[in-house]
Design brief:
The complex is a heterodimer of chains A (162) and B (250).
Chain A (H helix, E strand, L loop, with lengths): L2 H25 L2 H15 L3 H4 L5 H22 L23 H8 L4 H12 L4 H8 L3 H21 L1
Helix pairs in contact in A: 1-2, 1-4, 2-4, 4-6, 5-8, 6-7, 6-8, 7-8
Chain B lengths: L7 H9 L7 H6 L1 H45 L3 H4 L2 H9 L8 H4 L5 E8 L4 E3 L4 E4 L3 E8 L3 E9 L4 E5 L7 E3 L3 E2 L4 E2 L5 E10 L5 H12 L4 H6 L11 E10 L1
Parallel strand pairs in B: 3-11
Antiparallel strand pairs in B: 1-2, 1-4, 4-8, 4-9, 5-6, 5-7, 5-10, 10-11
Classes of the chains: A mainly alpha (162), B alpha+beta (250).
């Protein structure tokens, strides 16, 4: 086995569980999460040096896996199979109890860019602090707050209209 | 103890480096977080037992690509990534446009791939199986009868499948009509056959699926496999395909 292959296998063993758990959390389906985990890691392994940086690796993995799996959900939704995609659960700690129901949040997500999607999911679904999301995405806390506010505005606008 | 429950990201960090974690106090006092952590551990075991064995080979194969990528710089460089003035000049200047009627001539299928080779100063249309300079520059044109999601890739005698277009993204590039593809490629200077394959699916097609379908259709690596691998099997219904063989001469 080449050095690259064995190093990749070792990194996959270490960080694969992080990707798998993230995909499982978003996709809610072990088979879909398995496929997504492989696809995400194939992307990650192309930048092996980044995977070996223990200080920054987890937020990076988290960000790539989140984007990938949110895209998967969006694609499923576009194909009209969204009945098969269980809704994302809002975190109890998100502090946004007045949000529209989670199906609506999910529907609105796809109207936003990938960064805003990650912000919304990070805060509302994962219950992350805005500072944590800012660190994850390499954004300022203010930008995260602004993107979240825009997302919530649109969500509430939809509630009002419906 | 942390007042607010930690996020999954914080728990992931805790699992990877418990010795550096500050969450132990909270986890000891918060049954909900302790239960969440146990679930995450169980999912990690599930990964190692079922997911890892089934997928590690694809990850290992992908890891070989960085070393290939070094050769790839000699072999195949997409223009947007080049950034070099000379390369940009070459591709953007397009000293001669491809003949407009070519794609109407080549076959009557739903997808047509035309490859233009520049070995000297003038690009010319490549014929299937034609010998070309091993370091020739290429441009591509696609003809499609209907909008579809395109992957353009290549297969060499070592069995390496390489992504040519689109350079980024996962579902393939939406092509709505016949078009010259932006960018291009430069052959690596290694003699041998190289097959350029265009796949165009009615819905988004993941890169991994496209790559695996090509690998599975080729079977064993080798020059003959490249020369004879004309049809890629195992693609979603309605996926159109076309390919063209180039023989890189020394």
């Amino acid at each position: 086995m080449s050095e690259h292959r064995s190093k990749a296998a070792e990194l996959y063993r270490t960080y694969g569980p992080v990707v798998y758990r993230r995909c499982l959390r978003i996709l809610k389906d072990p088979e879909a999460a398995k496929d997504a985990t492989q696809e995400v890691f194939v992307k990650l392994i192309r930048d092996m040096s980044k995977l070996e940086d223990r200080e920054t690796v987890v937020p990076w993995i988290y960000r790539v896996a989140t984007n990938h799996c949110l895209n998967q959900r969006r694609n499923v939704s576009r194909r009209g199979d969204d009945l098969d995609a269980p809704p994302l659960e809002l975190a109890a700690s998100s502090g946004h109890d007045t949000l529209p129901d989670r199906q609506l949040v999910q529907g609105i997500l796809s109207r936003f860019d990938a960064t805003t999607q990650t912000v919304a999911v990070g805060v509302l679904v994962d219950g992350m602090e805005q500072e944590e999301v800012a660190e994850l995405l390499g954004l300022s806390r203010r930008t995260v707050a602004r993107k979240l506010a825009r997302f919530l505005d649109l969500a509430r606008h939809h509630v009002d209209r419906s | 103890m942390t007042a607010r429950c930690p996020s999954d990201l914080a728990l992931e960090r805790h699992l990877l480096s418990p010795e550096r974690s500050t969450l132990a106090g909270h986890l000891a006092a918060c049954p909900a977080c302790a239960a969440r952590l146990e679930t995450m551990k169980r999912q990690g075991e599930e990964f190692l037992r079922f997911v890892y064995p089934a997928t590690v080979e694809a990850v290992e194969a992908a890891a070989e690509r960085p070393s290939l990528a070094k050769a790839w710089r000699r072999w195949l460089l997409l223009v947007p990534a080049l950034g070099g003035a000379a390369a940009l000049l070459f591709f953007l200047a397009r000293p001669a446009a491809p003949p407009d009627d070519y794609l109407g001539v080549k076959g009557g299928g739903p997808l047509g791939l035309a490859v233009f080779v520049q070995e000297g100063t003038t690009p010319r249309l490549a014929r299937d199986g034609e010998p070309v300079a091993a370091g020739a520059a290429l441009r591509f044109r696609i003809r499609t009868a209907r909008p579809c999601h395109l992957w353009l890739l290549s297969l060499d005698a070592r069995g390496q499948v390489s992504r040519l277009y689109p350079a980024q993204g996962e579902g393939g590039a939406l092509v709505e009509r016949s078009a010259d593809l932006p960018g291009g490629a430069v052959l690596d200077g290694q003699p041998g056959p190289e097959r350029l394959i265009a796949l165009c699916a009615p819905a988004q097609l993941g890169w991994t699926s496209a790559e695996q379908a090509v690998r599975a259709s080729v079977g064993a690596a080798g020059p003959d496999a490249v020369r004879h691998a004309v049809t890629v099997a195992g693609l979603p219904a309605g996926t159109a395909q076309d390919s063209l063989l180039l023989e890189k001469r020394p």
